[in-house]
Every structure is written in structure tokens, then in C-alpha cells.
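FW: tagging you since you asked about this chain on Friday. Here's the raw sequence from the shared folder, copied in full. Didn't touch anything.
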Amino acid sequence: MADYYPRLARWLGPIVRGYSRLQVIGREHLPDAGQPVILACNHPGSLWWDALCLAAALPQREIRFVAQHWDAKSRVLVAMLSRVGALFQVLDMEQIDEQDAVVQALRQGETICVYPEQSYHSFWRRYTLFRFAPHALRYAELGQAVIVPTAIIGAEEAAPTLLGWKARGMPLHFPLHPPLVLPRKITVEFSPSRTCAQLTSEPGGSEMQPADYLRGADRLRNLVSDVIRRYRHCRTSDSCYLDHRGWW
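HL: got it, structure written out here
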């Protein structure tokens, strides 16, 4: 495991919990430490504030966050994220096999966080869940892990991207204002765990097709959106957020 994660958790955890008045619900839905689990989470706000809040919500666990394939193209990001134990997701789900680093980490009983939306949102598209990528289902299948639908509420308001530019096909917004982290309350809620077979309605051992994984990703999104709707008005969109562009 990375050498920086325990230090950051020890130093920043109490600050994040206090500053964001962190509320954590549903810890009982997580398997015991040492058992493989995927936290499939919405990706709200910016500045990785949602990731810091999730880490602060589970101070006794080391979470390995899965960055996207485009992050692996930057030496700076690779060096920085690797020091905190991050892994990198491949472009296409079909590329995931038993040698994949995420699968190997799961088989070692680690806690993995995956962002199926693949990109964080601007403030103006807050609480909209865009199409989920199916990678988490494949990771769970090969890593023999359960998936815990995880919702973070409040990060859109706490770390907003208010005005800036986003190009189509690029994950990042380029804000025209200073970075903001406001003292808004954050809630992290964990839902009951599901297996890949439960989400896809395919019994274990049967040969899965790409459409099965996509169906499971849609059901996973619905589980996350159901939780968010208890706190905020939440919409779903069948488009991929990476395809959006414009000024915000």
C-alpha cells in the first residue's frame, strides 16, 4: 500500500470531518476489513473533495481510488496518485482480465473506490447522474468482490465549479475562479452490497455479454440515485458526461 495514504488520513481526516460536518450512514453494509469490496460512488464537486470526504468517512480503512486512463498519461498525476495508492482504469471494459491491477488488489482483500461516471460535474449539472461505465461490474466479477452503492451528498455545493470551460471528450473543467471548498455539510451513505450476478441478473458461472454489464451498470446507477433523492432532487441522463462541452 502507498506510503502517503496513512499520513494523509491521519492529518487531514479530522480536519475534513470537522470542516464538512461529515455524516456517515450505512457503515454496517460494508464487509469486514480484509474482504474485497468496491465502493461505486457518484463523483460530485471538484478538487477531489468527495474523495477526501469518503476517506475521512472510513478512517480505519485504506481506500484505493481508481483514477481514469487519461490520468495515466500524465507523469505528474501518476507520480502523485501512486503515492496514495491509486490504481488506473483501462479505457475499455473488455481489456480487464485477471491480471488487471484492480482485480489483483481486490483478490488481496482491499477496499476499492470506482467512479462509474468517470468525470466530476460542474455546479450547473449537480445531482445529475450520467451514464455509468460498466467497469465496476467486471472488476467485481473477476475480483470476487461485492459492490456497495455509495452516495456523497453536498460536495457539489462544497467544491463547486461555477464558471469555466469544458471541451468535449475531456474530463476536466477549467474554472475561471479560484478553487473553492466551502464549509457545507457532507453526507456519505453506503447502501446494502450487491454482487455482479445480482446486478446483472446473470447467475454465477454463466458467460456474460457486454449488454449484461451495461444493464448492471444502469441498475447500479439507479441504486445510487435512489439514495441521493432522499436528500436532493436527482436526475439521471443516458448521455456520457465526457461528451458534454461548453461554458458553465
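FW: The chain is about 30% helix and 15% strand.
HL: agreed, and Residues 41 and 150 are 5 Å apart (CA to CA).
FW: great, closing this out.
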